[in-house]
TrEMBL record:
The keyword Repeat applies. InterPro entries: Homeodomain-like_sf (IPR009057), Myb_dom (IPR017930), Myb_TF_plants (IPR015495), SANT/Myb (IPR001005). One of its GO terms (cellular component) is nucleus. It comes from Heracleum sosnowskyi. Keywords: DNA-binding, Nucleus, Repeat. Residues 1-57, 58-107 form the HTH myb-type domain. Pfam families: Myb_DNA-binding. SMART domains: SANT. Residues 1-53, 54-103 form the Myb-like domain. SUPFAM superfamilies: Homeodomain-like (SSF46689). GO terms for molecular function: DNA binding. It is found in: Nucleus. PANTHER family: MYB FAMILY TRANSCRIPTION FACTOR, MYB-RELATED PROTEIN MYB4-LIKE. This is Transcription factor WER-like.
Length: 245
DNA sequence: AACTCTCACAACCGCAATGCG
DNA sequence: CCGCATTGCGGTTGTGAGAGT
């Protein structure tokens, strides 16, 4: 098995992953990288998406209210993922970082006063978690007839009608059903659209005439990458260096 | 200007949980 | 029930930026 790449993600890799997910949805993390042309593990791709590339993720600029929620929920032993569920747009990893780099220290220095969370708040949080864990106890979703939706590819008719498959040569269509790498789509793994998640289409459909895919700055703007990452990367490519620092 | 230290955060790892045949 | 594959969680590490000396 080829070794997976282990290093900071490049803008090109980000674009490959986002482009792929935008076109085909998330159908199987472990197999997606191969079809997206990425030398990354599925785990790495999932983490990158969940913590960084997902347009739902907000980064930085924590409000006092958010900090207090983190502190209070952590104080009673609630896990990172449950706290993330309580804070829309925040990933568990980011909250964890926030805790370790800011809040823990502030508490140690008694900069913030730890308040006993209101019982109602805790019960409300627990109710939410119960609903998330046992959705069928609360409502029964209508299961779509997948055989009518998916014919050759595990993507929806909407996506089939709105993608230009020929525009990107280095991204492969997911495998068809019945092949050796049949993705075994189930209801719970149904691919979803970014539009469904975000409400709006946040990504440009512009395709670079030379490279076939949008440039990073077209997608995210230079501020997307911290510490002038994009600038340094671009310079490294221009000077044909193998590693940029 | 050069070096060291600290901070912030991206990303990795190991393990647990879950799903599926 | 079992074994394997996949996904999710939490702890930890690595690295770049900026502050301090």
């Amino acid at each position: 098995m080829a070794a997976f790449k282990k290093s900071p993600w490049t803008p090109e890799e980000d674009m490959q992953l986002v482009t792929y997910i935008r076109r085909y949805g998330i159908w199987n993390w472990s197999q997606m990288p191969q079809h997206a042309g990425l030398s990354r593990s599925g785990k790495s791709c999932r983490l990158r998406w969940m913590n960084y590339l997902n347009p739902e993720v907000r980064r930085g600029n924590y409000t006092q209210e958010e900090d207090e929620i983190i502190i209070n929920m952590r104080h009673v032993g609630i896990g990172w993922s449950a706290i993330a569920a309580r804070l829309p747009g925040r990933s568990d990893n980011e909250i964890k970082n926030r805790w370790h780099s800011h809040l823990k220290k502030r508490i140690a220095n008694n900069v913030v006063e730890i308040m006993e969370p209101e019982m109602e708040e805790i019960e409300s949080t627990m109710d939410t978690l119960m609903i998330n864990d046992h959705p069928n106890d609360f409502f029964a979703p209508e299961v779509p007839k997948l055989e009518e939706v998916y014919v050759d590819y595990p993507i929806s008719p909407y996506m089939l009608n709105n993608i230009d498959v020929s525009s990107s040569s280095n991204i492969n269509i997911p495998p068809a059903f019945g092949t050796s790498v049949d993705p075994h789509i189930s209801f719970w793994r149904e691919p979803y659209l970014l539009e469904d998640v975000c409400g709006i289409d946040q990504y440009a459909t512009y395709v670079d005439p030379v490279f076939g895919m949008p440039r990073a700055e077209d997608w995210f703007g230079e501020s997307f990458y911290p510490y002038n990452y994009l600038t340094r990367y671009t310079e490294a490519v221009a000077h044909n260096t193998t590693r940029f620092t």
